[in-house]
């Protein structure tokens, strides 16, 4: 893989004196969607926190765009858009004001037209643009956050359980949106429990167990892209 966006090799991360991530390796290219699955407490969010530099690693290699969060945290964070499971927006600000403000914090300038185009492309209804985020559903909050991620135009997008709590139509819209971002060259790493959604969208699916990738599957070119029975069996084995 030439110039991967994300390189993780033999990553070790400890929390509370325990090795939560223990020899995890994963490489992600531009335009690739990788779904990271695993049981509760397997270390998925911990892996995202290490990539974001929220948690220090105690072993292994980790680079984003060739930079190591251990010694270039600002440069690394400038390359990442991160959507936590519950997207944090300022409830008293409108969608437009939220995006304006959060872009400013990220030192990123975008015109009114660019912001509206992003809202349009994520399918946030025009009547919501000037509504306070406090009244938004989870899906609307995510669309706002994805619009922000698109406007920031970062090479790497990290998602923590993005479809939990979304209805099937909103989930399908969300996955279509990820495909649009990936087609623009964004590398997407998505932590999820949604096996079917992952099989619909991801190029690769990794199953994390005991702190490392225990199994990995790549999408085939013909439908079905993944062997769902193999995925279910793999998942059942590590539970
Ligand atoms: N602040 C903390 N201090 C110590 N240990 C922690 C802390 N937060 C999480 N852990 C432990 O780290 C392990 C991995 O947690 P993590 O949140 O990464 O799992 P996960 O795979 O994202 O799980 P889930 O699917 O339930 O969200 C768990 O065993 C958890 O108890």
UniProtKB/TrEMBL annotation:
Pfam families: ABC_tran. Residues 6-235 form the ABC transporter domain. Gene3D superfamilies: P-loop containing nucleotide triphosphate hydrolases. SUPFAM superfamilies: P-loop containing nucleoside triphosphate hydrolases (SSF52540). It comes from the Bacteria. The keyword ATP-binding applies. PANTHER family: ABC TRANSPORTER ATP-BINDING PROTEIN ALBC-RELATED. This is ABC transporter ATP-binding protein.
């Amino acid at each position: 893989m030439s110039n991967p966006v994300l390189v993780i090799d033999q990553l070790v991360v400890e929390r509370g004196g325990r090795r939560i991530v223990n020899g995890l390796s994963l490489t992600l290219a531009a335009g690739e969607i990788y779904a990271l699955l695993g049981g509760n407490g397997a270390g998925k969010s911990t892996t995202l926190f290490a990539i974001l530099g929220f948690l220090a690693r105690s072993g292994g290699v980790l680079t984003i765009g060739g930079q190591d969060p251990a010694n270039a945290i600002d440069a690394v964070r400038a390359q990442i858009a991160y959507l936590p499971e519950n997207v944090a927006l300022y409830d008293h600000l409108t969608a437009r004001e939220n995006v304006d403000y959060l872009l400013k914090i990220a030192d990123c300038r975008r015109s009114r037209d660019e912001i509206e185009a992003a809202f349009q492309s994520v399918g946030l209804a025009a009547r919501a643009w000037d509504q306070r985020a406090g009244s938004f559903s989870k899906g609307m909050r995510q669309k706002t956050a994805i619009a922000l991620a698109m406007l920031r135009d970062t090479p790497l997008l990290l998602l923590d359980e993005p479809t939990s709590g979304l209805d099937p139509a909103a989930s399908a819209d969300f996955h279509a949106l990820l495909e649009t971002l990936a087609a623009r060259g964004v590398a997407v790493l998505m932590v999820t429990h949604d096996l079917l959604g992952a099989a619909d969208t991801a190029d690769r699916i990794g199953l994390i167990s005991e702190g490392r990738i225990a199994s990995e599957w790549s999408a085939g070119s013909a439908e079905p892209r993944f062997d769902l029975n193999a995925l279910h069996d793999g998942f059942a084995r590590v539970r």
